[in-house]
Design brief:
The chain has 340 residues and is α/β, with parallel strands linked by helices. It has 12 helices and 14 strands. A 6-stranded mixed beta sheet has the order 3-2-1-4-5-6, with helices on both faces. Strands 7, 8, 9, 10, 13 and 14 form a 6-stranded mixed beta sheet that branches. Helix 7 crosses helix 8. The radius of gyration is 20 Å and the shape is globular.
């Protein structure tokens, strides 16, 4: 049985196609596409089909599972509107069985019509399916392009205190910070350079992808989102944007200065994630951290180590590409169980 699992985010849509045999995963193939749902949500159906076709003919897919976080984009007046729009588009796209990840498990379109918010930003439920393969008692951290999920697992089941993004933002289980799309001004008050602290400009000048390009922690292929100034993604382009954060330019600062700033910014984002992780650790008394997502080594491992916690990587059982789309893999796994 071949199942497609999608994780439809606000900026990126991820896919995992898993071939199951007697309930076991035989092969996993993954892909993703940048799709800004705040402006291009009408392209969703086309992108879903194209992603599958990059791997196999759509006719070979036996079922489709969907998780989503795109309902929060400002194209929708309410999260309910967003969930129902995504579901409506998916139902029109596929002829095979389709179901959706909710906080209580997989849901049909009919069930979502009655309680749509149960499917809002529930992709962390799917990722928990994979984390339990490493440990039945742990906290998994999944930092993607935009957000960080910090989810406790006890006795093989997720036990998050918050069930919505709103609730999880108070429990430490959601830190709205990511590896690519986070405005530096959202978590920085100042930047340290040459022994002095410079207050930052609260503008859309640079994002975290710029920092991690300068530090050689990601490549241009990883930098899949738009740049804030509409310019290129080379290291010099990224450095130019970072300089603007302190109201400077590359005639005032050299690359050594930009690297020094970037290291400081990196550490501040690690501390931001560690703050949420500390709250979850103290609530649940767990000390094993399982990392996944694009930021698993760049941010999550360092946040856990900052707190003196034990760390394992989902990379022990998945490839780096698979870790990046872990919610999509978990969604396909949940869909297979739902069908059986």
């Amino acid at each position: 049985m071949k199942i497609a699992g999608f994780d439809i985010g606000g900026a990126n849509t991820d896919l995992a196609v898993i071939d199951f045999e007697d309930g076991e995963m035989k092969t996993i193939e993954v892909d993703f596409a940048y799709l800004p749902m705040w402006s291009n949500n009408d392209d969703l159906s086309r992108v879903l089909v194209e992603l599958i076709e990059n791997i196999c003919p759509v006719s070979q897919i036996d079922a489709v599972g969907i998780s989503m976080t795109a309902e929060l984009v400002d194209a929708y007046d309410t999260k309910k509107d967003g969930v129902l729009d995504v579901v409506n588009k998916c139902e029109k796209t596929f002829d095979c069985p389709v179901a959706y990840v909710g906080v209580d498990g997989m849901m049909s379109a009919e069930e979502i019509a009655e309680t749509p918010l149960k499917a809002a930003a529930a992709n962390w439920i799917a990722t928990a399916q994979i984390a339990t393969l490493i440990s039945d008692n742990c906290i998994f951290i999944d930092t993607g392009s935009t957000t960080t999920d910090i989810i406790p697992i006890k006795d093989g089941r997720e036990c998050a205190v918050g069930k919505s993004d709103f609730d999880r933002s108070a429990t430490g289980e959601l830190v709205y910070t990511g590896t690519l799309r986070t405005n530096l001004a959202s978590f920085l008050d100042d930047v340290e350079l040459n022994g002095r602290k410079y207050r930052v400009a609260s503008e859309l000048f640079a994002q975290t992808a710029d920092v991690y390009m300068v530090l050689d922690l990601i490549t241009e292929n990883d930098y899949i989102c738009d740049t804030f100034d509409g310019e290129g993604k080379s290291k010099i382009d990224c450095a130019r944007r970072i300089a603007r954060v302190v109201c400077a330019d590359l005639e005032m600062l050299d690359m050594d200065d930009i690297v020094e700033m970037s290291k400081y910014i990196h550490q501040k984002q690690v501390e931001q994630i560690a703050d949420g992780l500390k709250q979850v650790v103290e609530t649940h008394g767990l000390d094993l951290i399982v990392t996944t997502g694009l930021g698993k080594d760049i941010l999550d491992k360092k946040a856990a180590e900052l707190l003196g916690l034990k760390v394992k990587s989902m990379g022990d059982i998945l490839t780096d590409d698979e870790c990046t789309v872990a919610p999509a893999i978990g969604t396909a796994v949940m869909m297979e169980k739902y069908l059986n």
